[in-house]
TrEMBL record:
The keyword Transferase applies. The keyword Signal does not apply. Keywords: Kinase, Transferase. It catalyses: N(6)-D-ribulosyl-L-lysyl-[protein] + ATP = N(6)-(3-O-phospho-D-ribulosyl)-L-lysyl-[protein] + ADP + H(+). This is protein-ribulosamine 3-kinase. Its EC number is 2.7.1.172. Belongs to the fructosamine kinase family. It comes from the Eukaryota. Transmembrane segments: none annotated. GO terms for molecular function: kinase activity; protein-ribulosamine 3-kinase activity. It is an enzyme of class 2 (transferase).
Length: 342
């Protein structure tokens, strides 16, 4: 146990006179340091109550600042759409004690475990998230594809600039952006660049283009509406759990929960790319999920769309971890280009 930095106490509105401690036992993360705060604070009835918070910190300067701001907005976008589906973010900012070198993110505490995930519960909560339209853009009044701030998938920055067209967003903010990131880290790769650029210019419009996605073979439909997606929903970012010690009127009921999001306003099926890539969800989940969120028209192109969305995560893993994921990305692109890009 360690004392809680004063700047964190202030950010969480915990009186400095209260008993509070910071523990890092049993917690860990690939790109950040994590811990838990316990604080005994006065309650509204004059008694004392224990509050619990989850904490992430990083000394990675500007990147940490942007990463935690993105996760703060991501968590709260999901929690607003589906309360209890993820912990709410409570505060983020610089650790004053570090003189601007370290940043923090504090959230509600998520007590994980209790029987493992259930397909029905996760499908219901994710289905509710994916049927809740994104909020209108305050400047235009339109529901647009993007996100108010950059987010990070792993340690990869995603700009999330707003677009009216989902195809333009996916081509520019995901495929071409991750190609640039990969080349900065791994060196220029002419053959990979050619494949990504061909995919972005031919396959993406063919499968995701305006006037096509969301319309059946007879041309009937309404297009697609942007919804909040988690953005990095592999099986390690979902579990059964309960939000506890939040100080709200009763803690959330235990259920299937998600965490470590990389949110944006997107096509709902974008979420399924990484879920299919690593597995762990099973056919019963997808059956239950698609009862709530039907496959987008043209239904016959569903598998190819999900494969196209999976491509981004192969490219992202290639950017983060190196050559091991290149072949998977190349295989997807070659098959899709043969079918839609020639």
């Amino acid at each position: 146990m360690a004392p809680v930095p004063i700047s964190l106490l202030r950010a969480l509105s915990i009186p400095e006179t209260c008993q509070a401690s910071l523990s890092t036992a049993g917690l860990g993360s690939g790109f950040t340091s994590t811990g838990a705060i316990r604080a005994t604070v006065p309650s509204t009835n004059g008694q004392e109550e224990e509050r619990r918070y989850f904490l992430k910190t990083s000394a990675d300067g500007k990147s940490a600042e942007e990463m935690f701001r993105g996760e703060y907005e991501s968590l709260n976008a999901i929690a607003t759409a589906v309360p209890g589906f993820c912990p709410r973010a409570l505060a983020w900012g610089p650790l004053e004690e570090s003189k601007g070198k370290s940043f923090f993110l504090a959230t509600e505490f998520l007590n994980l475990g209790g029987g493992g995930r259930t397909s029905q519960s996760l499908a219901q909560r994710l289905g509710r998230l994916h049927t809740t339209p994104a909020p209108p853009d305050p400047d235009t009044g339109k529901r647009r594809f993007g996100f108010p701030v950059p987010t990070f998938c792993g340690d990869t920055k995603q700009p999330n600039r707003f677009h009216d067209s989902w195809a333009e967003f996916y081509a520019n903010e995901r495929l071409l952006t991750i190609l640039e990131t990969s080349e900065k880290r791994n060196g220029r790769d002419a053959s990979l660049r050619e494949l990504v650029e061909r995919t972005a210019s031919t396959v993406v419009p063919a499968l995701l283009g305006d006037g096509h996605l969301g319309y059946d073979r007879n041309g009937e439909g309404e297009g697609i509406t942007p919804v909040v997606v988690h953005g990095d929903l592999w099986s390690g970012n979902a579990d059964r759990g309960q939000i506890v010690g939040s100080g709200r009127e009763g803690d959330e009921e235990a259920g299937d929960v998600v965490y470590d999001p990389s949110a944006c306003y997107a096509h709902s099926e974008y979420e399924l790319g990484i879920m299919k890539m690593f597995g762990g969800f099973g056919s019963s989940f997808f059956t239950a999920y698609h009862r709530i969120v039907p496959k987008t028209e043209p239904v016959e192109e569903y598998e190819d769309r999900v494969r196209l969305y999976e491509l981004y995560h192969h490219l992202n893993h290639h950017a983060i971890f190196g050559a091991g994921y290149r072949s998977g990305a190349v295989s997807i692109m070659q098959k899709l280009i043969k079918k839609y890009g020639e």
